[in-house]
TrEMBL record, chain A:
Domain ChsH2 rubredoxin-like zinc ribbon: 14-46
InterPro entries linked to this entry: ChsH2_C, ChsH2_Znr, NA-bd_OB-fold, Thioester_dehydratase-like
ChsH2 C-terminal OB-fold domain ranges (all copies): 52-126
Pfam families: OB_ChsH2_C, zf-ChsH2
Species classification: Bacteria, Bacillati, Actinomycetota, Actinomycetes, Kitasatosporales
Gene3D superfamilies: 6.10.30.10
Protein name: OB-fold domain-containing protein
Automatic annotation (TrEMBL), chain B:
Thiolase C-terminal domain residues: 259-377
Source taxon at top rank: Bacteria
InterPro entries, A to Z: Thiolase, Thiolase-like, Thiolase_C_2
Protein name listed in UniProt: Lipid-transfer protein
Lineage: Bacteria, Bacillati, Actinomycetota, Actinomycetes, Kitasatosporales
SUPFAM superfamilies named among the record's database cross-references: Thiolase-like (SSF53901)
Source organism: Streptomyces aurantiogriseus
Length: 138, 385
């Protein structure tokens, strides 16, 4: 599986994720959250930012179900879902991930035909991987 | 008075050229580039030694030095590259038009040569960062451009009630035009609704026929001043208006992180394009709209003002995109059915329409919109005869 190719702007996100926390870069001056992370705030141009802890809750904004041809590690699990989740605290921030049966389950573990736009989901973490999502009410 | 005259009708496309299109061509990209460029110059009746300006895509592999020394260009005084893949197609012509209108050059050549049919698929490269924020998307299996666009397509269908039939209408119009175009890869391959609806998925909700072709081929065109074009071999096709578009807080094909992911670069380019035009979307006789994936067409129809927000799917109903319809589309077959060469074939097809020489000619066509890739920083041209 592809590992995130981390850049300096994104590194804190992954460090917090490894501790099981979903945090979002937020301007320390004007308070606007922003994603993907970047050096300065597009609203007030401040270079000072903090990483705000979120509840990890969100709703599915959209999803796709990829089929081959895919990279071999992914083809093995296809067809699988990829969801785009709007964060409850910051609806403009939508994270790409997989809806899975339980934390650490493979990306094909949740049946694609049961994914729905609008479903409430919760982030769960599995080491250095992107956050996964489980249904808030299975 | 800088900028007083502007670009409007100051320049024209005087020549077009192309190689054959196929899944596999034996010659390399550099040779194909040379052939397309020389064909375009011959079509214009201009000698290679007169060329002093070049424009292409940052993804183009044949560089200016290689092309210039191979085909025998003169001294070049302007050369530019446009980023973001298929978003750059129309901007190559726009850059040349601006350079010529500003007096920086007199004969410009734009080109694209690509062996996408027989070469590697860019997304299979796991080392190089693609021009997207890959760390946030690829590890979860959102690997290919089709996956990224399918995410927006699903939401579009959910919000506005667009259907697979609407996407089929796009694929069918392109295929029908390709069936009239002997140079098209899909010339002898008709498409039916049944074959569309039962084809394999690539990334649900998009199926095989929602995806463009993978093609080897090259194209080029020649841009000169309007006055010079009058002395060339064909009726000049005027560059009436041109625009690039990179909206505020846009993120490329993964445009997931702003208020409204479904209004993309087309909206930005369109505002500039129409502001500088003497006519409106209602006056466009034929359109060449970038179609790497079918959902880009309804999104572009909305962005360029042919219909309202959310109406792009419904716009395709009743044969609107066919010859004789409200807006005949991609009359050479487009990227879906003629060739996928990062949209350059759409520019040349626009020129053919306004010369009256298309294989699917719209009677009396006098205005044509050509667009580059929606979903990435884009560009567009309004051409007129």
């Amino acid at each position: 599986m592809l590992e995130p190719l981390v850049d300096p702007d994104g590194a804190p996100f992954w460090e917090y994720a490894a501790r099981g926390e979903l945090r979002v870069q937020t301007c320390a001056d004007c308070g606007e959250p922003r994603f993907p992370p970047r050096p300065c705030c597009p609203h007030c141009q401040s270079f000072v930012s903090a990483w705000a802890l979120t509840s990890g809750r969100g709703r599915i904004w959209s999803y796709v179900v990829p089929h081959p041809p895919l990279l071999p590690d992914y083809a093995e699990h296809a067809p699988y879902n990829v969801v785009l989740v709007e964060l409850a605290e910051a609806p403009r921030i939508r994270l790409v991930g997989n809806l899975v049966r339980e934390a650490g389950a493979p990306l094909g573990s949740f049946p694609p035909d049961r994914v729905r736009i609008g479903a409430r989901v919760q982030a769960v973490f599995d080491g250095n991987r992107p956050p996964q999502w489980i249904l808030e009410r299975p | 008075m800088p900028g007083a005259a502007g670009l409007k009708d100051a320049t024209a496309i005087a020549g077009i050229g192309q190689t054959p299109f196929a899944k596999h061509l034996p010659e390399d990209e550099k040779t194909l580039a040379c052939r397309a460029v020389l064909a375009a110059l011959d079509d214009a009746g201009i000698a290679p030694g007169e060329v002093d300006a070049l424009a292409s895509y940052t993804m183009e592999e044949t560089d200016e030095v290689e092309l210039a020394k191979a085909v025998g260009f003169g001294d070049l005084t302007f050369f530019s590259r446009v980023p973001y893949g298929g978003g750059g197609s129309c901007a190559t012509v726009a850059h040349l038009a601006a350079a010529i209108a500003a007096g920086q050059a007199s004969v410009g050549v734009a080109w694209r040569s690509r062996k996408r049919g027989s070469g590697p698929r860019p997304w299979t490269n796991t080392v190089v960062q693609l021009p997207t924020p890959a760390q946030w998307t690829r590890p979860s299996g959102l690997l290919r451009p089709v996956d990224e666009i399918a995410m927006l397509a699903r939401r579009y269908m959910y919000e506005y009630g667009a259907t697979r039939d609407h996407l089929f209408n796009v694929a069918l119009a392109c295929r029908n035009r390709a069936n009239q175009n002997p140079a098209a890869v899909m010339y002898e391959r008709p498409l039916t609704r049944e074959s569309y609806m039962t084809s394999r998925w690539i990334s649900e909700p998009l199926c095989l026929y929602d995806n463009c072709l993978e093609t080897d081929g090259a194209l080029a065109c020649v841009v000169v001043s309007r006055e010079r074009a009058l002395d060339c071999r064909h009726r000049p096709v005027l560059v009436h208006s041109a625009a690039q578009g990179l909206p505020a807080q846009h993120h490329g094909m993964v445009n997931y992180w702003n208020d409204d992911p479904l209004t993309g670069p087309a909206w930005t380019a369109a505002r500039h394009l129409w502001k500088h035009a003497d006519f409106t979307p209602q006056d466009v006789d034929v359109a060449q709209i970038y179609d790497a994936f079918t959902p880009l067409v309804p999104l572009s129809l909305e962005g360029y003002g042919f219909c309202g927000r959310g109406e792009g799917g419904a716009f395709t109903e009743g044969g609107a995109l066919e010859i004789g319809g409200r807006l005949p589309l991609n009359t050479g077959g487009g990227g879906l059915s003629e060739a996928y060469v990062h949209g350059f074939n759409l520019i040349n097809e626009g020129v053919k329409q306004l010369r009256g020489t298309s294989t699917a000619q719209v009677p009396g066509a006098a205005t044509c919109l050509v667009t580059a890739g929606e979903g990435v920083p884009t560009s567009a041209l309004l051409l007129r005869s």
